[in-house]
């Protein structure tokens, strides 16, 4: 129960995720999503991996659902996207909270964030993993390789948002603009404090833009382009 936590602990938890108040396993499940009904096609899309087939067959055969009763966060993250420095600080506080708990979220885009009006909260942990889980050797290697993925992915989302919203760069030219900033050539008309944010995060954003392009282009074996083995600082 929430009453068992100190104010500091509750604040730390709030940076990580909405509070979980209750859960139940109930009979029945939602219909299988249209894009997942053809299991053979989905398995081919993911390289014919047998684990993918097992996963989707088990979901299709499920007879119960897990229902979570979570803290209500009324606002989309767009309500918070007004102060670049505040957004930067809160995004990387989320990263720090994830790291402190050895959690990899792996899907921290703005659509998976909500706001209570003052703070950004990360939601939807459907792809999350952790070295604390019961992992195979291959999965443990994946987790180790992707230790900085959330930080770099946050940097990409932050920089891409600023380049389009604050710098006025249209989407077709965005990635080349980010690469230019990553090389240290930030245009003189970029407003302050966006210049400093781009200087800090454009290199990671450029790497992640290229990586995500490979994934969306169908290269399911593309590997996250980690830099070194240290932990990234905001």
Give descriptors for this structure:
mainly alpha; 234 residues; 5 strands; Protein kinase domain-containing protein; 3-stranded antiparallel beta sheet; Transferase(Phosphotransferase), domain 1; disordered C terminus; 2 domains
Topology diagram in text:
Blueprint: H1 7-16, E1 20-27, H2 39-45, H3 50-61, E2 64-70, E3 75-76, H4 84-100, E4 113-115, E5 120-122, H5 137-145, H6 149-165, H7 171-182, H8 194-216
Antiparallel strand pairs: 1-2, 3-4, 4-5
Helix pairs in contact: 1-4, 2-3, 4-6, 6-7, 6-8, 7-8
Organism: Paractinoplanes atraurantiacus
Protein name: Protein kinase domain-containing protein
InterPro entries: Kinase-like_dom_sf
CATH homologous superfamily heading of the largest domain: Transferase(Phosphotransferase) domain 1
Global outline: globular
Q: Approximately how much helix is present in the residues?
A: 40-55%
The percent range for strand residues is 5-15%
Strand order of the largest sheet: 3-4-5
Which fold name fills CATH's third level, the topology of the largest domain? Transferase(Phosphotransferase), domain 1
The major beta sheet can be summarized as: 3 strands, antiparallel
Q: Based on the structure given, which CATH architecture of the largest domain is correct?
A: Orthogonal Bundle
Give the distance, in angstroms, between the N- and C-terminal Cα atoms. Answer: 33 Å
Helices and strands, in order, run as HEHHEEHEEHHHH
Give the low-confidence spans: 1-5, 229-234
**Helix- and strand-based class?**
mainly alpha
InterPro entries: Kinase-like_dom_sf
Protein name: Protein kinase domain-containing protein
């Amino acid at each position: 129960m929430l009453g068992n936590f100190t104010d500091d602990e509750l604040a730390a938890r709030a940076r990580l995720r909405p509070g979980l108040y209750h859960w139940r396993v109930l009979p029945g499940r939602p219909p299988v999503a249209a894009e997942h009904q053809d299991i053979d096609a989905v398995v081919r899309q993911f390289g014919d991996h047998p684990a993918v087939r097992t996963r989707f067959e088990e979901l299709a055969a499920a007879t119960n659902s897990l229902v979570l009763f979570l803290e209500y966060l009324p606002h989309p993250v767009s309500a918070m996207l007004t102060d670049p420095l505040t957004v930067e600080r809160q995004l990387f506080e989320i990263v720090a909270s994830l790291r402190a708990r050895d959690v990899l979220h792996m899907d921290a885009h703005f659509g998976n964030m909500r706001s209570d009006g003052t703070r950004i909260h990360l939601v939807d942990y459907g792809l999350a993993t952790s070295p604390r889980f019961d992992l195979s050797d291959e999965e443990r290697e994946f987790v180790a390789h992707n230790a900085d993925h959330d930080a770099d992915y946050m940097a990409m989302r932050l920089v891409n948002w600023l380049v389009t919203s604050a710098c006025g760069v249209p989407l077709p030219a965005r990635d080349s603009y980010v690469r230019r900033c990553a090389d240290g050539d930030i245009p003189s008309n970029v407003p302050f404090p966006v210049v400093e944010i781009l200087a800090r995060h454009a290199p990671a954003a450029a790497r992640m833009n290229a990586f995500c392009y490979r994934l969306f282009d169908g290269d399911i074996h593309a590997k996250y382009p980690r830099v070194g083995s240290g932990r990234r600082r905001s």
